[in-house]
Amino acid sequence: MTRHRTQVAIIGSGPAGLLLGQLLAKFGIDAIILDRVDKDYILGRVRAGVLEGGTVATLEKAGVADRLHREGLPHDGFAIAFDNRLERVDIEKYAGKKVMVYGQTEVTRDLMAAREAAGALTVYDAADAQPRDYDTDRPFVSFTKDGVEHRIDCDFIAGCDGFHGPSRKSVPDGAIAEYERVYPFGWLGILADVPPVSDELIYANHPEGFALCSMRSKTRSRYYVQCALDDKIEDWSDARFWEHLKRRLPEESLATLTEGPSFEKSIAPLRSFVAEPMRFGRLFLVGDAAHIVPPTGAKGLNLAVSDVHYLYSGLQEHYGEGSDAGLDAYSAKALARVWKSVRFSWWMTTMLHRFPDTEAFGQRIQEAELDYLFSSEAAMTTIAENYVGLPF
Ligand code: RFL
Ligand code: PHB
């Protein structure tokens, strides 16, 4: 058994764990990060693309926003296509803010580089990580690496280990409430080195199913189509993907659509999930470990960042001022924001996807809702202020 000692043990080296580690390091608080997989595996996951202003500000505070500002694409609006119309939501006009298009993979890469430069410890390929004794004042995390057992004694444990990680699962059933909605479809996503169809994102409602045109740069497109839950990647040749995407976009977009070979293709199921509370003694759940949103509102990564903000502020108060007020307020503050993003993501999902059981009636209701949206200043303000991110 090898023993280690740190102030905050962080399970999970996704954006939540890495950002928390970086902010703590800036403030002189020591943390060790563990992950089940290795660095290349983490950097191979293609996920979020849209960062709220509050997320960008938090990355600036952590000192990891230089490349983001050089290479990220600021967007001041996005489009919704429906009923062969293409309408724009001017987020700058209605909410006074922009979002930044910059891939989660790049955020993660920047955070990993900063952590390496600071010489802070991350243990990759750590098996069987378990948060332990967090209901006492001597919590620790146990794990195995290369067949050797390790133990990290710490003051606090941050469970940043995603939806399937051990932190939430370690909480006894009676101490946690879980709320869940699983949607009856998934998203098939591709990456292709072709210029994006438009300078802005297009979210498309179509009787055959949802589609999304996003991007990673001016030469790399990220496109999605709604698919069945039991579809397999092998069912979706590139040719079939482009055919479906084109059918779901309005005619006026087709002239600027460039097709090309995909170099990444994956299927993601859609779910809404919230676990309450987000604190159990000295264990704090952060990001996807505590909640999942369907990607339609582009909120998952941004919620992980607001959780990190609240937890970091609480830890800073604990170590800097000897006050536990921030840590005591963590769960309630984080959940108040989480539920609003869960609502927005559920609403966007409901308005834009084809639901197998609602048939033509459901489609007409969606078109009426979208028609209303683009005829009402109040509705435009609502969608814009949620899309750019509620304050934290
Ligand atoms: P992560 O990124 O899942 O990281 C968790 C880490 O924990 C590790 N882990 C363990 N480590 C040690 N021991 C164990 N036993 C462990 N088990 C797991 C994992 O290896 C991993 O490294 O969670 P985190 O940090 O909370 O970050 C959350 C975000 O990744 C997620 O919310 C977003 O990707 C969601 N999301 C989007 N969010 C946005 O804000 N904007 C978007 O545009 C957006 N688009 C998306 C998305 C997610 C998608 N998928 C595939 C789910 C688009 C898609 C398609
Ligand atoms: C993405 O670029 O991957 C992306 C963008 C917006 C979303 C979801 C995903 O709502």
Integer average pLDDT: 97
Strand order of the largest sheet: 7-6-15-16-17-14-18-21
Which structural class do you get from the secondary structure elements?
alpha/beta
Please report which band the strand proportion falls in: under 5%, 5-15%, 15-25%, 25-35%, 35-45% or over 45%.
Answer: 25-35%
At CATH level 2, the architecture of the largest domain is 3-Layer(bba) Sandwich
Number of discrete domains: 2
Describe the global form: globular
- Can you tell me the residue ranges where pLDDT is under 50 for at least 5 consecutive residues? none
Q: Compute the separation of the termini in Å.
A: 42 Å
Small molecules (ligands, ions, cofactors) in the structure: 8-demethyl-8-dimethylamino-flavin-adenine-dinucleotide, P-hydroxybenzoic acid
State the helix count: 13
Q: Per CATH, what is the topology of the largest domain? A: FAD/NAD(P)-binding domain
What is the CATH domain class of the largest domain? Alpha Beta
Q: Please tell me how large the radius of gyration is.
A: 21 Å
Helix content range: 25-40%
Task: Please name the fourth-level CATH homologous superfamily of the largest domain.
Answer: FAD/NAD(P)-binding domain
Describe the main β-sheet briefly: 8 strands, mixed
Number of separate strands: 21
